[in-house]
Amino acid sequence: MRVAREVLIETPPEALWPLLWDVPRMAACLPGCAEAEEVTPHQRYRARMTQKVGPISLSVPLDVEILSAEPPRRLALSARGRDPVVHAEIAMRVTIDCEPAVGGARLSIGAEGHVLGKLGGLGQGVIQRKAEDTLDEFARRLARAAQG
Questions:
Q1: Domain definitions of the chain by residue range
Q2: For residues 44 and 33, what is the distance between their CA atoms, to the nearest angstrom?
Q3: What interhelical angle do 13-20 and 124-146 show, nearest 10?
Q4: Whole-angstrom Cα distance, residue 64 to residue 67?
Q5: pTM of the model
Q6: pLDDT of the chain along its 148 residues, tens only?
Q7: Which CATH class name applies to 2-146?
Q8: E-assigned strands of 14-148?
Q9: Nearest Cα to 105, choosing from 35, 8, 23, 22?
């Protein structure tokens, strides 16, 4: 599964960068993020994602690791987890590239991931649509959060 979106935000990259590290505000931007906590600042985080994909509901504890951070231009992370009830395994890599744009910043958000187990058996089309919808909503929420 691969998803990519570009978003224009009326906030310059330098002002947007601190928002990307604000755990409660970022958790509120991510649909289905039930909880999130910082384990090691700017390195490791834990989160719980709850989602309904087709007929399957899941709650996945995620270990999130920052792979690279180039302020205020680029952030890359990986997230892995396994739902203990549904036995769905999720592994993803997310990148956020931020470039100055007229009136603010242009964000390029990309996600690439794999879903295994019962959830993976639903078919890639269902998973792809859910990932696209989730990323679209994240972009909308992030734009609102950046504008205050």
A1: 2-146
A2: 16
A3: 120
A4: 9
A5: 0.90
A6: 899 999 999 999 999 999 999 999 999 999 999 999 999 999 999 999 998 877 778 899 999 999 999 999 999 999 999 998 888 889 999 999 999 999 999 999 999 998 887 666 666 777 788 889 999 999 999 999 998 7
A7: alpha beta
A8: 33-40, 44-53, 56-70, 74-82, 89-101, 104-116
A9: 8
